[in-house]
C-alpha cells in the first residue's frame, strides 16, 4: 500500500471515531461567539 492510501485510511478512521461534539465543535464555537 502506498503512503497516500495509508494516510487516507487513517483520516477515514479518525473521522469515523469522532463524535458529534468534535465534528461540530468549530461550528458551535462560531455560533456561540
Short overview:
By secondary structure, the protein is mainly α. The protein has one domain (1-32). The chain has 3 helices and no strands.
Notes on the protein architecture:
- With 33 residues, the chain is mainly alpha-helical.
- It has one domain.
- The protein contains three helices and no strands.
- The protein has helices at 3-17, 20-23, 25-32.
- The radius of gyration is 14 Å and the shape is elongated.
- The mean pLDDT is 78.
List the helices and strands and how they pair.
Layout (H helix, E strand, L loop, with lengths): L2 H15 L2 H4 L1 H8 L1
The fraction of residues in strands falls at under 5%
* Gyration radius, in Å: 14 Å
Biggest pleated-sheet summary = none
From the structure provided, what is the oligomeric state, counting identical versus distinct chains?
Answer: single chain
Percentage of residues in helical conformation? over 70%
Low-confidence stretches: none
Helices, by number, come to: 3
Keywords:
single chain; 33 residues; mainly alpha
Amino acid at each position: 500500500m502506498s503512503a497516500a492510501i495509508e494516510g487516507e485510511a487513517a483520516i477515514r478512521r479518525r473521522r469515523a471515531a469522532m463524535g458529534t461534539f468534535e465534528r461540530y465543535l468549530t461550528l458551535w464555537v462560531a455560533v456561540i461567539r
